[in-house]
Amino acid sequence: MSVRVNYGIGSFGKVISARILMGTDIMEGIEALCEENHIESATIVSCIGSFQKSSFVYLVPDETSHIKVRFSEVIEKEGPLEFIQGSGVVCKRDGGYETHFHGSMSDQWGVVSGGHFLKGRNPVITADIVLAEIQDVQHIRRLDEETGHIQFYPLEQGLELPRKIEK
Predict the structure, then answer these.
(1) Which residues lie below 8 Å from residue 38, measured CB to CB, with a gap of 6+?
(2) pLDDT in tens, 52-86
(3) How many other CB atoms are there within 10 angstroms of residue 26's CB atom?
(4) pLDDT for the residue 39
């Protein structure tokens, strides 16, 4: 099996600890924190809490797709939901924020679900979050020709293309 990686080398800058308040969409809250603090790229170090409701998708097989998978139909879960853990990267695309965020939650019976969260559709009851600014690497989301989907593109400051590993 081959090893193929695109990457950039940077460092942590500001670290923000915050509580996202009731009714705020989790991704919109994260992006507002970044905008307010002039952060272009970040990683979500820790994120837990609870949701009023949640909407997400996950991968399902699709033999007609170039990469043999596609996103499911939108899954909508009514709350209250215990937000077990979320992680992701704050990126930019076309001049705005586009956060790539995944998480898991459990319902009132302890049934766990989760996946790729949809912005604007995950209002919290509360969420405790720690964000770390990434310096010297731009987190970009853009169309990847190999997969045909929007993907993470880490671009180190001063370089025109990501660093690569190909073995």
Answers:
(1) none
(2) 999 999 999 999 988 899 899 999 999 999 999 99
(3) 28
(4) 97
